Amino acid sequence: MVKYVFITGGVLSGLGKGITTASVGLLLRSMGYSVTSIKIDPYVNVDAGTMNPYMHGEVFVTEDGGETDLDLGHYERFLDINLSKDNNITTGKIYLEVITKERRGDYLGQTVQIIPHVTDEIKSKIREIARRSSADVVLVEVGGTVGDIEGLPFLEAARQMRLEEGSRGVIFVHVVLVPKLSTTGEFKTKPAQHSFQELRRIGIQPDLIVARSERPIDGGIRSKLALFGNVGVEEVVNSYDVDPVYEVPLILKNQGVDRLLTSKLGLEYREPDLGPWVELVERYRSISKTVRIAMVGKYTALKDSYLSIIEALKHSGIHLGVKPQLVWVEATDVEAGRVDPKEVIEGVDGAVILPGFGSRGVEGKVRVIEVIRELGKPTLGICFGLQLMVVEFARNVLGLERANTTEVDPNTPHPVVDLLEMQRGVVVKGGTMRLGALPARVIKGTLAYRIYQTEVVYERHRHRYHINPHYVDALESAGFRVGAVSFEGFPEMMELQGHRFYFGTQAHPEYKSRPLKPSPVFVEFLKASARL
Ligand code: GLN
Known about the structure:
The protein is built from 19 helices and 21 strands.
């Protein structure tokens, strides 16, 4: 019978619940149990695709083209599995379903209510994913903080599931922040106490408490949390800040979380095989060589906007034995003349031109790209990054004045980047981009082929625009060559001849990068940057 682990959070959001969930999953998986993971986001958007990254961090794209919460990225990286768009449940999705059913007449004669109709829909979605994945254990992370109005129906559904599945079928892990006062250096448990009370009011008793803190907490604090949380002292574990986050599963294992999980879920205990993770963390710790990478984008104030790219660079770094040191270059600052791109770029070993949407910051990015190309620094352009590399090249090398993407300038005389054919006539915004894993044919003898070493690659996409095939001849004859082509026939990867590494891809290779299996694109980029 399938088991469920619900992970809730107290005190504040952004605690690292996603990492805790992924780490719990990894412990179970390394004991030989199959695991899947669901993220519940109580906001009313149907998915994360329509949100600004400043609201919510990066939009993580799944193989099947879901635009999901970034926690799915944590799950995929730790568990080394591919999840579906369905693994991200939102209030929007649930209500859309319930209202569609109501209109169809499925509830004919009834008053449709939060309990039982909405809660039933939530439970049935969770159980459906469990059934489809045929996992031994399903992790369900409830986003937000206990006590949020939006989260109540989901917690109510979780409470009911415990009743229905029994205490060995459903367990609760509650993650709380234990802040430290800078004035006295004292850990405070009061916010955690309030969140335990809030949980109890909803009818949920945690089986395990994960205390998140900056530094390790002491035994006294642990006992206090146990007392107020109504659990045994050994059922309070501490997850303090670590770098890399891939150490968290090891920290939890050291505190016996593996045994606690199996005994509470009624599963047989098997010694977890965490060897590769221990090695990964040791390797990371032993790295002394750094490589400075400029990150050129416009959502740089919130680093979570580019989370998978940061992680992909880290994975490659561990693999190669170098530590990427990120130098953030805010395109709007360049545009406004607050930052001199030459000064910044001269000080780095390589640059990533980040993905994005819309015209804000575009001219700043183009200016930075020009500097990077002229200085010959290794460059990796991702999606909008590649598109703007083409815009820059068209303007400054081909001499096509005012060349642009029609996303920014619909009236440009040289639409070197243009709307995809399939996008013409698309008016609905949610979930309508060219999304998910799609194939590209890699051309032999190119840098792209050296990177992938195979002819057909599937990377994940999220875009509406593409490089206009009409300009390919002109670009190629000036040395900016096509390295791979989509099955629809437009350039998917471009690379500059005679340059150490000047490479752009329409796809997002960062989504598939895993700590133990880094993306080859990032590995080659970092290799060139670090001159390995
Ligand atoms: N805005 C561009 C497009 O829609 C690039 C998108 C991206 O960088 N993900 O094609």
